[in-house]
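Running this now, will post back.
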Amino acid sequence: MDLRLYVEAPPPVGQALALPAAAARHVQTRRLQPGDPLLLFDGGGGEWAARVERIGRREVVVQVGVQRPMLAPPRPQVTLALGMPANERMDWLVEKATELGATAIQPLHCARSVLRLDEDRAARRGAHWRAIAAAAGEQCGRAWLPRIEPVRTLDAWLATLTDGDARRWLLCAPQPAQRSGEAAAPARERGAGDARPVAALALDARALLVLSGPEGGLSPDEEQRAHAHGFAPVSLGPAVLRADTAPLALLAWVRLSADAASAAVEGPGFAAAAASGAARVAARAPAGAAAAGAAHGAVQAIATAQTEDPHR
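Update: finished.
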């Protein structure tokens, strides 16, 4: 498979292009030679064939060839709005969300957030996360990269939402009754309403907007404000997932369910390819997430990753 490299803007067809520094280093590290083929992509569905023209000590120039047919973005479009997990967990989440075809990622400061970023640090982290998404797209073959939105507080972000066709889901942690088998507390005591299991939900919307809390989850007041903005509570089941695992488990379920629906139309060959791709994504997860040979096994592998230390 030809080396894939990210470029920020559509390259000039039929002309020479000096690669960005990161892409040039990648070519040099892989020891490509003049004449070797590669593939350029802009993160917005565009892909272009190219060939290495010249390799210098600090510069790599390629000749841009024809553009490939424009690729459609993954459907449904999924935006993940989440309380930022601390340390390297946010980096891991951005990488895996890119592999799983997230449309956008909205990092949030919430009441219980451990990670707090001032304006300068938030700008630097945003650039860092965009670089992670680009590298993940190069590796996994995604032609569409997620937009990494500026860091906002939960209330400031909620205030920006307008009426649209995106279905809004609030990922809720399981209540103690769900884990013990006892009767659930009334919704008015929980403040989160009755969360519906994702397996019972229909994927008939063109776009999904998913809100997930940080370590420790959203506060009751934050959940109430989310409900007031049209977010319906949903549950991934009785397992307590970490703040970086839960949105990825939901995203994996959405993608595999959408692939299964497409497979029903396109035939068994498509279904086999979808299951194989899902297993490859699960196989890249940290130790503890074993890839399975079937689509639902891949979802389970992602959903059970790192559950031994919930919301830490």
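Confidence is low (pLDDT under 50) at residues 178-193, 281-312. More later if anyone needs it.
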